[in-house]
Amino acid sequence: MTAVRKHSTQFLISAILLVALASVFYVSKYLKNAQNISDKPVVKTTSYCQTVVGCSAILDGNEVTLHISPPSLPAAQPLDISVSISGLAAENVTMEFIGRDMHMGLMPFVLQELPPTNIGTKTFMGASSVSFCTVDNTMIWMAELKIETADAIHSVLFELDTSKEEVSDAKTTS
Description:
By secondary structure, this protein is an alpha+beta fold. The protein is 20% helix and 39% strand. It folds into 2 domains: 1-36; 42-161, Immunoglobulin-like (Sandwich), CATH 2.60.40. The longest helix is centred in the first third of the chain and has 34 residues, at 2-35.
């Protein structure tokens, strides 16, 4: 009787280990696929943005503009997001707010395409918020837009400046 119990216990332990190994394999495969959603090349662009004026970047000769309201980016309050894309056949647009100097977690959100009003320009809208930073009340936020086309994923990273003064086109040097 004890020999049967011993073999049953060994079989049960072997079965549990096999299931655990299979689970690790499938979970790692799932996570790898979740990180590599697309095999499309990623084209990255970085731009400075003064939120009171709005943000703009050029992607392969095509303009992308971002407007955030209210431009002061109050923490934990709704922000209206509007993105206009001229000349780029955007299929999907997502955005997330990122802390420049501190990782604040990933909370991407999908922007919804509006019916076209201008030929060659697509507009996407959505709402989100920035979170509280308990360590730094002067957190500098970045807005990352991911624009997916049939050929590539364009990543536009805007460094957001919430000061109320407009930046003049003339640059001064000391």
